Amino acid sequence: MAVEKMSIAKALNESLRLALDTDPKVLIMGEDVGKLGGVFRITDGLQKDFGEDRVIDTPLAESGIVGTAIGLALRGYRPVVEIQFDGFVFPAYDQIVTQLAKMHARALGKIKLPVVVRIPYGGGIGAVEHHSESPEALFAHVAGLKVVSPSNASDAYWMMQQAVQSDDPIIFFEPKRRYWDKGEVDTESIPGPLHKAVTVREGSDLTLVAYGPMVKVCLEAAAAAQEEGKSVEVLDLRSMSPIDFDAIQRSVEKTGRLVVVHEAPVFYGSGAEIAARITERSFYHLEAPVLRVGGYHVPYPPARLEDEYLPGLDRVLDAVDRSLAY
């Protein structure tokens, strides 16, 4: 067993390094990913070690980056493209949803597009406009795309490996405010399938479901609730498309209550689909309505107000209390 303690950023870097080293068809493309090593240094040192033909600094043209990746994938490559910030993905949205997501079905299964689109997402870093978005539901709604987000270093390392090896296009959301959170990574033991949810804390009174940056908040909420005698289970969803509804259902039918937490706005967010599906599946097991905690239905605010916008410990605990009060 080779266990190392590393940050999420370091885990992603090591995972991409392994992917480049293992498969000569893997390429990394994006703005400033080469010489600079990326804004968050996720690709630091990779161009130096693998060359400019494998780690490619592109023009500032997201549509062109993804369009080029599609062409390369058609020729047998496995491109990993970086969108520098979440809000910059929209110039490439057309390429992603009308080409990348559709090509496999359009070709009746004869063509595969193994492209990974990396997107640092979410707030909490005091950034300016267009740098703190959570657009995961927009991509999860599109058939043909798989959408994932790690919450810890181990998942960051292994989920990136699994994403690069997948023959399906994957939108890989990286929680940027968690980049420097550290954890243990076993680099020799795959933790599980890419799209399976994981119970990260056992409980019996209520289930909290989250993914990406909100998993840490939910764990803190569960610990705080425990001090008041409440037993809260925390499920790390890991994948927003497909969603592991079976895992959520098993947990809810044990606890009888569900609160879904995500940083994106509650309105039309991933929590809405989860709430509807679990209500259909587990209606007679629910002791309370499924509640949702998330961002407000407003443009992401200036940095000085983001602490008011982002779901924090108090808002999660309020939802836990409201659910348990039924």
UniProtKB/TrEMBL annotation:
Pfam families the record matches: Transket_pyr (PF02779), Transketolase_C (PF02780)
Domain Transketolase-like pyrimidine-binding: start-end pairs: 6-181
Cofactor names: thiamine diphosphate
Keyword Iron in annotation: no
Keywords per UniProt: Oxidoreductase, Thiamine pyrophosphate
Protein name: Alpha-ketoacid dehydrogenase subunit beta
Keyword Oxidoreductase recorded: yes
